[in-house]
Amino acid sequence: MELDRRHELAEFLRSRRARLSPEEAGLPRGARRRTPGLRREEVAMLAGTSREWYTWLEQGRDINVSVQVLESLARVLRLGADEREHLFLLALRQPPPVETFTQPIISPTVHQFLDHLEKTPACVVDARMNVVMQNAAHCAVFGDYGARPEKERNLIWRLFTSPFPRQINVAWEKVAQVFIARFRAGYARFINDPWWTEQIAELSRISPEFRELWARHDVFNLSDGQKTLHHGEAGDLVFDFLWLQTVDASDLQLLIHIPHSNTDTASILERLLSGELLPPADTEGGHS
């Protein structure tokens, strides 16, 4: 398996080198090029490594590779985001580091998918756990996140600073533990991003519960679970929730709430969608 990985890395580097012309790399074409693309020594020179070391890498030899060198190779070979990640996974068995957060783009397909989940509350959440898109069913249950200030669109902020999540989440403590462990898992990827430092510091100052749970250093990405929300007029809404990862944008996830079978959740949701019932929380506050 190790040999296969090194072989795949070697083949990948050779293919990326072959597709890049000298002119694209800022080099003169020169004469007597028997093969298309850059020469090994040209890639090595542009990446700041020796020809011998880079040759060994393309030969699939068992040599150490640093993050800095991989970043240089990704730059020289003009790798896209997916190709850069592929390079790191092959060379180091880990994704590339992420220094700062950039707002991912939501594809029309994801938007359409949410709309087709007519009676299933669903939203799109970014790496910071901000709700960046939601369908009508999610608005009916959780309120309109688009109408809130930017800070109020964050699931962790809402969970620990608003009274409404505590009032309507039947097992608020359990939900808080799950969400904060997921939040910490994302934090490791963006540890140099000042937004995370500021958010954690402010939440620690405002919320003793956040401060206590954050100090536990729990880390896990629970992919599914169950959540019960209490509606003062209609009773309890019981959802099986599911986190799904989008393929084209690794920093976006879908959070889907499926009405639990053998409960009145589906019928209550229909009344919420029709406007017969108000959301469980007030229309300004909502909840996580």
From TrEMBL:
HTH cro/C1-type domain location: 12-84
One Pfam family here: MLTR_LBD
GO MF annotations in UniProt: DNA binding
Database matches in InterPro entries: Cro/C1-type_HTH, Lambda_DNA-bd_dom_sf, MLTR_LBD
Descriptive protein name: Helix-turn-helix domain-containing protein
Biological source species: Phototrophicus methaneseepsis
